[in-house]
């Protein structure tokens, strides 16, 4: 899988924070030789990045070693600083690198304007469980991405979890709002469940342990058991029992989680649209 990438034609990650770092560690773990990876990140160049040797971290593209022609450039910086970074990327397009962007909201057409109309660009949306190989990434490519580049981008994202190709870039903001941001909703659910346990008289530490392990266990069950979430829910719910009483609130006609989740995902999608405008 790594044959397209070499020391002379490395994989360059621009921005090695939470998402870039998670992917980089995933790729190293999946067998990418460290000599084939270059990281550009001014902060990481000062502080170092967990799991990545400092010899491959550079503060800017201008300081990358001479005579390298990146085969893949991963853009894992915030959408807000893309304008400032793209000119340096445009200056490194000689080897015809595949561009992969993880940035929320930022459309393929925006990159084409700076990097060239025929630049091969894949827009992806991973999520942070990628750091343990359990992410899910959606991908969408423009027409200039070759079959082998398409395969390479899929293999790269498969190294950190599952992958799904989208039929249209127009789906990307909804996807971002659901699976990109989604881990945060689940972590907040842990916080909310723990706070509810504390309010019922449990000590805070016990409540947090119970909430955390419950969500982790339920997540593991979901990934091991192919039955629907509905059936798994029904298995917990004894007729006229405690879960049924709890779910009457969570699934009630007036206040319910589905409604709140719809509002949550709608707000996140709208923000994606704003970031892309
Ligand atoms: N955190 C998440 O769960 C996800 C984030 N994303 C996307 O990933 C991108 C990065 O987000 P995070 O990793 O969360 O942010 P982050 O703030 O953790 O990482 C951004 C990195 O960019 C670096 N940086 C700043 N200026 C730079 C420059 N001029 N050149 C190179 N690097 C520079 C920063 O030092 C930082 O390490 C965003 O576009 C976001 O939309 C996508 C999916 C999930
Ligand atoms: O919050 C954000 O904008 C990024 C995109 C998806 C997850 N984090």
From TrEMBL:
Q: Which pathway does UniProt place it in?
A: Amino-acid biosynthesis; L-proline biosynthesis; L-proline from L-glutamate 5-semialdehyde: step 1/1
Binding, NADP(+): 14-19, 76-79
Query: What reaction is this protein's catalytic activity?
Result: L-proline + NAD(+) = (S)-1-pyrroline-5-carboxylate + NADH + 2 H(+); L-proline + NADP(+) = (S)-1-pyrroline-5-carboxylate + NADPH + 2 H(+)
Note whether Cytoplasm occurs among the keywords. yes
Q: Where is the Pyrroline-5-carboxylate reductase catalytic N-terminal domain?
A: 12-105
Which family does the similarity line name?
Belongs to the pyrroline-5-carboxylate reductase family.
Q: What Pfam families does the record point to?
A: F420_oxidored, P5CR_dimer
Q: Which organism is it from?
A: Temperatibacter marinus
- Provide the alphabetized UniProt keywords: Amino-acid biosynthesis, Cytoplasm, NADP, Oxidoreductase, Proline biosynthesis
EC number(s) per entry:
1.5.1.2
Which residue range or ranges hold the Pyrroline-5-carboxylate reductase dimerisation domain?
169-275
**Gene name, please?**
proC
One GO MF annotation is: pyrroline-5-carboxylate reductase activity
GO biological process terms on file:
L-proline biosynthetic process
Superkingdom assignment: Bacteria
Name the GO cellular-component terms: cytoplasm
Role according to the record = Catalyzes the reduction of 1-pyrroline-5-carboxylate (PCA) to L-proline.
Subcellular location as annotated: Cytoplasm
Entry protein name = Pyrroline-5-carboxylate reductase
């Amino acid at each position: 899988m790594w044959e397209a990438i070499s020391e002379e034609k490395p994989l360059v990650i621009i921005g090695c924070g939470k998402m870039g770092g998670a992917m980089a560690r995933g790729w190293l773990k999946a067998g990418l030789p460290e000599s084939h990876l270059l990281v550009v990140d001014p902060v990481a160049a000062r502080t170092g990045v967990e799991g990545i040797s400092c010899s491959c971290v550079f503060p800017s593209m201008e300081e990358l070693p001479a005579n390298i022609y990146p085969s893949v450039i991963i853009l894992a910086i915030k959408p807000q600083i893309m304008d400032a970074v793209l000119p340096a990327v445009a200056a490194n397009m000689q080897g015809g690198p595949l561009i992969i962007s993880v940035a929320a909201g930022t459309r393929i057409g925006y990159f084409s304007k700076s990097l060239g109309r025929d630049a091969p660009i894949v827009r992806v949306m991973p999520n942070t469980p990628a750091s343990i190989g359990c992410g899910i990434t959606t991908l969408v490519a423009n027409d200039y991405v070759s079959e082998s580049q398409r395969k390479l981008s899929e293999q790269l994202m498969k190294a950190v979890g599952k992958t799904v190709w989208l039929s249209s870039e127009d789906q990307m903001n909804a996807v971002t709002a659901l699976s990109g941001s989604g881990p945060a909703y689940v972590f907040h659910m842990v916080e909310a469940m723990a706070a509810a346990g504390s309010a019922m008289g449990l000590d805070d530490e016990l409540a947090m342990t119970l909430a955390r392990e419950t969500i982790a266990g339920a997540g593991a069950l979901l990934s091991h058991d192919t039955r629907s979430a509905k059936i798994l829910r029904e298995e917990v719910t004894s007729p006229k029992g405690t879960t049924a009483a709890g779910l009457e609130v969570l699934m009630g006609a007036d206040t319910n989680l589905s409604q709140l989740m719809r509002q949550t995902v709608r707000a996140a999608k709208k923000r994606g649209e704003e970031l892309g405008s």
